[in-house]
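Chapter summary example.
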Amino acid sequence: MSNQALLKPITLGDLELKNRVIMAPMTRSRADNEANAATDLHAKYYKQRASAGLIISEGSQISSQAVGYVNTAGIYKPEQIEGWKKVTDAVHDEDGKIFVQLWHVGRMSHPDFHDGDKPVAPSAVNPNDKSYTYEGFKETVEPRALTTAEVKQVVQDFKKAAKNAVDAGFDGIEIHSSNGYLIHQFFNNSSNHRDDEYGGSIENKARILFEIIEAAKVFFPTNRIGVRLNPSLHGLFGMEADEETIPTFEYIVKKLNDYDLAYLHLSEPFTDVSDIDYLVDNIADHFRPLYKGNLMINGGFDQESGNKVIENEKADMVAYGKLFISNPDLPVRFEKNAELQDWDSDTFYVPGAKGYTDYPKLEDK
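The structure predicted for these 365 residues follows.
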């Protein structure tokens, strides 16, 4: 089994990964402290999973404006940088590699996180979804549209977060441009009704992402920057696709070839879009020919399908989410063809060690 495609090393720029089994970014809501900083518990959790070729951290908000979920660890305060240092030190002690996912949720937030003020978005369009607050799920509200100057400030907030990621010891960053959050909201006609330089044409709608990459590369070379996209997201997180959605993502992916990124991280559809003729139901097949760099794919893969998508040259790496929650040594289990443990979804988003750091490794059983 050691000849598996998933277990072969790969080079991302100047970074050598020991395998292609990537730990996907996953919100776990364990930063239940006043500073919303990562703790010793986070350090233990990520250290346990350092056999991954690369760990991509949970989404880490770039500013107070970017917050939208309870107990998530930010990267804009000194205490948060110190908290993340514990994590990166722990992972590096196990010869692991870790990127931080930089996150702004935009309109998917709630006034409860902003002293009663509205969350911000490209346009004042309610996603008509739910936000998980300290008092449980609440209906989202109509957000406030960012001014042009405020969009440029968001770009600067991402730049500052990249600097903070350097200070925290991360090996790189992933720009979260996916899953209905702020950057994704700019890409989509249902959430972007702007008439300035960030709206209207496909080029304008995509502009913010490339400005963020240009800003972030002051602190990380582009070969230490990843980008995450979800091209066929539809009917979730307030996102409604249309005939221009896939052409928008085709433009973005092709333009990303101009950058020597660490990787492009794509998600297969979260819902069945096979009957929607203007969407793509096999993301890896469609976008692999368009992107020349390292392609990471995510979404429902197991060991067999993960090996197959790499063998078929549709992707270079596979990101695993829930399997990494319950199997901290997932690459080791793949190598030994060992049985995988089931996860407990009731403990995904609650504070404490239960369902977080108490899943045993093979060597502990």
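To summarize the output: The two ends are 21 Å apart (CA to CA).
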